Amino acid sequence: MHIDSILINKFVIIPFNEWKNSLGKELFKEMDIILVNDPLGQVIGAITLDNPEKILATAFISIDQLYEEESWKDYSIIVVADENKRIIGCLKREELILYLYQHFKEEALYLKSLLSSIPNEISAIDKFGKISFFNDQALKVHGINLEESISSKLDDLYPGCQLNTLLNVENKEVIMKVTENGKGAFIQTNVMQDDRSVGAMQIYWTTKEIEKIALSLDLFMNLSADLQAIFDAFYDVIYVSDGTGMTLHVSSACEQLWGYRAEDLIGKSIYKLEEIGVFTPSVTRQVLEKKKKVQLFQTTKEGRRLVCIGTPIKDEKGNIIRVVNASRDITGESHLRMELEEMKLLMEGYKQQLSQLNELGIGNEKMIFKSEKMEGVVTLARKVAEVDSTILIQGESGVGKEVIASYIHSKSERNDKPFIKVNCGAIPENLLESELFGYEKGAFTGASKTGKPGLFELANGGTLFLDEIGEIPLALQVKLLRVLQEMEFTRIGGTKPISVNVRIIAATNRELQEEMKKGNFREDLYYRLNVVPLLIPPLRERKDDILSLTLHFTQKFNEKFKTYKTFSPTVLDLFQSYHWAGNVRELQNMIERLVVTADASTIDVEQLPDFLLESKTLPAVQVTDIIPIKEAIDLVEYQLLVLAKKKYRTTVKIAEVLQVNQSTVSRKLKNIGIK
Asked: What's the rounded Cα separation, in Å, for the pair 440 and 494?
């Protein structure tokens, strides 16, 4: 009972010898009751203003005792105290009785409403066996009102219920039984008070309600069985523990991996199981300690090697309530481990090979090579770098002529001076002369008012690289020849000769001797340029460089795009077989394209463009090393199937081309994982 739920009358306490003289005071006019105390301060009575001459008997009681004791019924006034025994007010007995009546009436109505809200039929009898309660559901089913139910016999409404037999039972008892007609079931119990039965009650369930429960239970059991079947069908061991490390569920695969049945582990602490060596270390323990997902390798008592992943399940407050871990046996995967080890060794070999290559740093460029032909080119370039001879670099587009020119400059005594590059084929003919030699102010319409120095002037003291020298028109070739011979020239519109000290390195992808025969290139200029000829062979003639360049560009673009892509051995073989018309530039662009567009981390033939697979230069069979015949046959068969699947859409066509049965093609494609 709460203090604020009782009507406490206003009161005042006065000494006994003063109360008669105080009745006329204004202080008491608003009071209902006046408490009187003796000279020692103890309350001895109370008076009411309607009878000021009479002192009424009082009881001193705490709030909590109002419900439990009945001694207050002997008093007309009850003095009420709080938990600290301080008087907080007083009540008239009639007021308290009225309050308690109202309170218990509300409680009774609440309990009745509570029982009536239950959808099942509920009925009760008193200690004499008469019906004392029917809830609304029971009244509705039997079509009677409360008065009619009280005057009825329970056995008439529920044949064979025999609820009155529980009245003679001394202890609490619960009975469940089916009705005589089989249309329902009872749950019956006696109502105990002071260790004796004072009545009994029952809940009646119809057959339909029981069937619904049974169906739901059956569905739950089937679902549970299905989940258990799925649980046990896993190749992995699924292990579930609670937040204290107690084992709750284990899939049946544990017997094969750990040598223990699930029932041997359920209910056991993972700490104890780890201690006796069932598994070491415990992933569940580490999840509970670290409070996060954990992955580790585990060794069982049987010596098996497992890879385990433990995942915590947390409640809304962040506390771990379950730990679910999955363990996979990797002991028997020796073949896979061997392949992985071999792949690691192969990759390590590639890394060492890459680091041991003749790698020459030239500014932001790197010259990667391994072939003997490129070794000869670089050796010659290193020699001529030490002198100032004019050099003519020849080779197909994309072979790296500019890289060699940069290397020569970097190794020369001019390396601290400018290295000026100009592509003669990229500048319009009418502007090329002004770019090379410059012009004076007002030399021609549109010329700068201050004039402009040419590239020869800008390269003074350093190196001028004239790329695509074969594109220079004949008229300009004459002036270029004079500069090479005398090392001086005159700006366009100028009259004063300008002397320069420039080393010339020229490059072309044209056959200049053929151009001389056609009259497109001056013979004297050719011999002036071709003091030291450097011929860079095409990539198809130095296949030993393809793998080195592939590894270099793959690493470069992986770093640039923050990826980790590699190429399968089959792709590397195709790269070495392809003719690479665009040479190193084409290879570089191809690798960048594949690194950017391929989804898988290992780039295989499926990601290659069709022209790479359909190249006529691809050999039918290529053997680069001695391997077992069966392995060679499998490798050739694999490459044939991949190429055929890439080129033809149907297995019928593939079978026709390969001259085998269609069923054989389908089976082999399935075996190698190609749909």
From this structure: 6
- The whole-angstrom distance between residue 406's C-alpha and the CA centroid of its chain comes to 47
Q: Which residue has the tokens 């393809």?
A: 546
SS (H, E, C) 464-518: EEEECHHHCCHHHHHHHHHHHHHCEEECECCCCEEECCCEEEEEECCCHHHHHHH
Distance CA 79, CA 93 (A): 10
Q: Give how far the C-alpha of residue 313 lies from the chain's centroid of Cα atoms, to the nearest Å.
A: 16
Q: State the pTM of this model.
A: 0.43
Cα 350 from Cα 415, distance rounded (Å): 33
Is residue 270 a contact partner of residue 284, using CB atoms and an 8 Å limit? yes
Which value, in Å, is the radius of gyration of the alpha carbons in the chain?
52
What is residue 227's predicted lDDT score, i.e. its pLDDT? 56
Separation of alpha carbons 527 and 604, rounded Å: 49
The pLDDT of residue 101: 75
Rounded Cα distance between 439 and 449, Å, is 10
The predicted pLDDT at position 616 comes to 41
Q: What is the tens place of the pLDDT at every residue in 380-406?
A: 999 999 999 999 999 999 898 999 999
**pLDDT score at 538:** 92
47, 36 in Cβ contact below 8 A? Answer: yes
User: What does the pLDDT read at residue 75?
Assistant: 66
Q: Is the distance from CB of 441 to CB of 449 less than 8 angstroms?
A: yes
Q: Which residues contact 73 (CB under 8 A, 6 or more apart)?
A: 93
Name the residue type at position 286: Q
State how far the Cα of 567 lies from the Cα of 554, in Å rounded to an integer: 9
Q: Which residue matches tokens 């080890």?
A: 341
Partnered with residue 467 across adjacent β-strands are: 423
For residue 355, the SS3 value is: helix
List, for the chain, all residue ranges whose pLDDT scores fall below the cut of 50: 1-7, 10, 16, 19, 24, 235, 334, 342, 345-346, 348-365, 616-618
Q: Which phi and psi (to 5°) does residue 416 adopt?
A: -95, 5
